[in-house]
């Protein structure tokens, strides 16, 4: 906070947050899952306006303080915005080149009745990891798996829980995921450092969930191969399915292992996938272009929406992509969220709220527990995981710094709390969307989303153990 700014009272500092919550409630009630297409951004700007108005009129905070903080904050996320555009390139090129279709083709064939729940969770995890989107995974392959579950006489609540658990596991660990990118950027943590550190809590939690799904699925019997056959036939008829396409993920993995900057990794992988598309899928590029111009087809794959007809409606939805254009709503949301966070910081309101929270922080476990509780509370009150991540990071960033903990601990805890619990809340955009897509009420599938429920607890348990949690300097109270 700038020295020209007086710290507001906590009851005053909470006003912009309350106003934001009210506007978000209105937006969500009016637009539902479409609120991210503009409504949530407007709500953030309104909250920002309230914060600035109170500070300038009551505390005489000069406008230049806000302007400087906004410039600083947006400058810090500029690389993140470029990464998101590269993510759009990558998602389109990996799909059209046949990389993701090849993995889906072989992945759906591993299912059996007894291992259906485990298979469903693993397949959704794989697709989400590759696509970076839990929403797309659930709306496409998830819907297909739910239908197979019905044929196998598996409870739809169990099936939905397995699908959501897998999808959110993959989403958390994917470098293509917007929430993963947002959590790392909001806390100032390198993307791949963030992902590697999340593995310490995320992988054990997912393994526990898989054990539960394995035990629950042992009593299943029968067979339902029709949907799987439709997917494999549709994919093989549309794409040139080849294991050669997997050289690109291998190449990407090597770059990640060598700790190459994420922007370079994503861009290089996109270019490699584009080359594979030109070699193995020229007919797909022609379909995207609407003519025989392969260059046009590749360019449209990178920057625009693509839709391929496989003869299967659900499969068509699965392999459709948005390219760089599909990232624009997320970029808009990040810009608005960062502006809201910037004025809250510049006004001293974040510091005021943080002081209240810090009063309850006495040690490592209480710090992580407070972060987890805040993330879940913001999911409940703001109705959106993106806003929850940004606000949690803003509130605790200085606390973690003052106590000497690495930013990766904060970024991981934000994801363990805010990202995965959003789908468990009926009025959250994630909860509403998945309940609508799967046709299973949020409170019906909630008890079976083991990964999502256990992740916040695992974060606290690991903090209590102190596993790989480093402290750079003694706490200065």
Characterise the protein shown here.
The chain is an all-alpha fold. It contains 25 helices and no strands. It has helices at 10-13, 15-31, 39-58, 63-76, 78-96, 99-107, 116-131, 134-151, 156-173, 178-187, 191-217, 226-238, 247-257, 262-280, 282-289, 294-303, 313-319, 328-346, 349-358, 364-382, 385-402, 407-421, 429-438, 442-445, 450-465. The longest helix has 27 residues, at 191-217. 55% of the residues are buried. The model has no long low-confidence stretch (mean pLDDT 85).
Q: DSSP helix count?
A: 25
Query: What's the end-to-end separation, in Å?
Result: 18 Å
Largest sheet: none
Multimeric state of these chains?
A: single chain
Topology:
Layout: H1 10-13, H2 15-31, H3 39-58, H4 63-76, H5 78-96, H6 99-107, H7 116-131, H8 134-151, H9 156-173, H10 178-187, H11 191-217, H12 226-238, H13 247-257, H14 262-280, H15 282-289, H16 294-303, H17 313-319, H18 328-346, H19 349-358, H20 364-382, H21 385-402, H22 407-421, H23 429-438, H24 442-445, H25 450-465
Helix pairs in contact: 2-3, 3-18, 4-18, 5-14, 5-16, 6-7, 6-12, 7-8, 7-9, 7-11, 8-9, 8-17, 8-23, 9-11, 10-21, 10-22, 11-22, 11-25, 13-14, 15-16, 18-21, 19-21, 20-21, 20-22, 20-25, 21-22, 22-25
